[in-house]
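Input record (Table S2, row 377):
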Amino acid sequence: MVNIADSKSGINMEITMAISGFSPAAAPPGTYISIPKKKLLQNNNLDISSSNSRTNTWVDSMRASSPTRIKSSPFSDDQNSWMVQHPSALNVFDEITSASKGKQIVMFLDYDGTLSPIVDDPDRAFMSDAMRATVRKLARYFPTAIVSGRCRDKVYSFVRLAELYYAGSHGMDIKGPSKGSKYTKGSQAVLFQPASEFLPMIDEVYKALLEVTKSTPGSRVENNKFCVSVHFRCVDEKRWNELARQVGSVLEGYPDLRLTQGRKVLEIRPTIKWDKGKALEFLLESLGYANCTDVFPVYIGDDRTDEDAFKVLRERGQGFGILVSKAPKETNASYSLQEPSEVMAFLRRLVSWKKMSLRRQFRMRRRVEEIKMSLPH
Ligand SMILES: O=P(O)(O)OC[C@H]1O[C@H](O[C@H]2O[C@H](CO)[C@@H](O)[C@H](O)[C@H]2O)[C@H](O)[C@@H](O)[C@@H]1O
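Output record (L263DTV3 complex):
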């Protein structure tokens, strides 16, 4: 185990032997690596100061519901042109697989809204058995990671597949497969927690938010270990202003925290330069694909927080993102799927395609052997 600690900033990271390629883990066991706080902290670009205008901005954003949504009616011109720019991954399946030719596909899957349908009660966002079986098969053919805003243990309790990588708390809590996977070498596992110094603060904020939002019916506070979610899906819209004020009153005392928004949820997290995009890069490095041209990452997600990962893929010019959405949204993803059932159909096709191409390769190799054997020595 490599213990990475910066005594000045108090930032601690524990890495249980990263797989390969990731530079901090290359340090000899037991050594300490200093990570300047400046490198990890970023400017809090969201206004969490106390003011009415701040509350109004939040409420406007909450009203937009899925904040990156472009207003349009079904089958409007907007929708049609959006679908041209972001075609269904099912319709262009052959295009996608031929782009991946000769490269290792690595799969990244968001959880809520991608593998499980959105429901009112976050504790009941179960994944179907059919989806679990599909993801299990997928992981046999491709390294697969679940990247979620949820606490890692919670998302694991829903997915229950030990052969996957998990990046919980928006990528701030990464763990490799606990069950043998052909993509891990020996018993090496990976654990990366870049925000561990924030644990006591997050816990404190969670408790304060629980207390202050008690008077708002329908609100729900979820402790996601390195971040906190305040749900407003079941709060009457007339009370969103009140809820935003309550959250703001708590955050005032915590300049090292920032606020982002997901689907009917306010998310409070540390102001470190770490997100789902960074988690994707970390996982690719851990898998040994740091500077490789022969890797093809595919990230499927439905939320604004998934945009960080879509953006990384665009910038790297590698693989692509698939946005799960029924409505047009501003996105860095290249393709779209409408809902989790389409995600499952896409994953199944990917598995069938891979099986077929492996069989084809096997037949070709056997044929070559037969020809070689039939040649006079
Ligand atoms: O990154 P994700 O895996 O998509 O996690 C993002 C948030 O997902 C959960 O909330 C969302 O799903 C709930 C259940 O369907 C729904 O009730 C809620 O309105 C959605 O925002 C999770 O509960 C949050 O903690 C995650 O941050």
